[in-house]
Amino acid sequence: MAKEIVYNLADTVQMKKPHACQVNDWEILRMGADIKLKCMGCGHIVMMPRSEFNRKMKKVLTKANDPVNAKKEQYVPKDSIARPNFR
């Protein structure tokens, strides 16, 4: 049985195939039934179903708010990502 990879909001992940801009780093912006990703090279945003994301993801590169990410131009810190206000 395959080992499940754990990922969270604002983590940077590597996908199996690179984006058209030839960068393979993606930041997770939204998690739910769908996952919203942002390319760390050009800033392009895509949404895909969680099942498709789990198939296409290769590994987690860095965790949320890792200082390595602060150097990347397209990175948004975890506390700056809009969160729904449920009460």
UniProtKB/TrEMBL annotation:
It comes from the Bacteria. Pfam families: DUF951. InterPro entries: DUF951. This is DUF951 domain-containing protein. It comes from Lactobacillus ultunensis DSM 16047.
